[in-house]
Design goal:
With about 260 residues, the protein is an alpha/beta fold. Helices cover about 20% and strands about 25% of the residues. The protein has helices spanning about 15, 45-50, 70, 75-80, 170, 195-205, 220-225, 225-235; strands spanning about 5, 25-30, 35, 60-65, 90-95, 115-120, 125-130, 130-140, 145-150, 155-160, 180-185, 195, 210-215, 240-245, 250. The protein binds zinc ion. Zinc ion binds near residues 66, 68, 141 and 162.
């Protein structure tokens, strides 16, 4: 049965640098296809240390939303592990163009021969990895960034990764059964490239998923106990909202 496992839930530089929460990525299984979203620092370690351990050699794809360090540090080692230490050409990498080209690509050139294929993310295109159809949503976040919608016969899952808020966001994620949102800050302030909690609530109310999960927390969220904030929001808006914790597994039954 499908599930989403949060290997890490850290979201801002301070939280990552001090490892107040782990900064590993999110492991997703849908219709038997295993995917990894945003392999930040410590992802390989967390895969092996969680119980039951997760085997990167079983991954069909790695999804990189953008090249910021807290999302991409382990991308090379995870590509190698997915390809069984580079012995086999296997798996797919989906990544924005600026993670692969330009002055400062984060995917090492010598690693690029390991996956079966590398595809460049573009809005209005659809990608297929195993049994999952993937639709990128262009975000506003300094570097080239894509949120991801994953469609499979186990539902429609939206991952609203790092972004500045813009009014079309709820519409772009419409129809999602499960909505995962990166909420770095509790309060809104101008000129920040991340979602604040009030903006996340606006998106959740627009999309009306069966379950919303908050993750990728900065200090202002952690100090206020994200699980309590999530419970208050659920009560207020009548849509189930939970806060991710390191190692949390959300199962299909929770979004179906
Ligand atoms: Zn970012």
């Amino acid at each position: 049965m499908g599930y989403v496992k949060f290997l890490g839930t850290a979201g801002a530089r301070f939280v990552v640098a001090r490892q107040l929460r782990y900064s590993a990525g999110t492991w997703i299984e849908l219709s038997g296809t295993q995917l990894l979203l945003d392999p930040g620092p410590g992802t390989l370690l967390r895969c092996r240390k969680v119980r039951p351990a997760l085997d990167p050699g079983k991954l069909s794809g790695i999804l990189l939303s953008h090249k910021h360090l807290d999302h991409s540090t382990d991308v090379n080692v995870m590509i190698e592990a997915m390809a069984e230490s580079g012995r086999k050409k296997r798996g797919v990498l989906l990544a924005p163009k600026d993670a692969l080209e330009g002055d400062d690509p984060v995917v090492l050139r010598y690693v690029r021969s390991f996956p079966e294929r590398i595809e460049v993310l573009e809005e209005d295109r659809t990608y297929h990895v195993g049994e999952v159809e993937i639709q990128p949503v262009r975000h506003i976040h300094g570097v080239e960034t894509y949120g991801l919608i994953l469609n499979s016969d186990e539902g429609r899952l939206g991952f609203v990764v790092d972004t500045k808020f813009f009014p079309q966001l709820p519409q772009r994620y419409r129809g999602c059964d499960l909505l995962v949102l990166n909420v770095v800050r509790k309060e809104w302030s101008p000129d920040i490239d991340h979602l604040s909690l009030p903006e996340a609530i606006e998106i959740i109310q627009g999309v009306r998923p069966k379950l919303a999960v908050l993750t990728h927390f900065g200090m202002t969220m952690l100090r206020e106990r994200p699980w309590e904030l999530a419970a208050q929001i659920s009560e207020k808006i009548g849509i189930p909202v939970i806060a991710a914790s390191d190692g949390l597994t959300v199962e299909k039954a929770q979004w179906c």
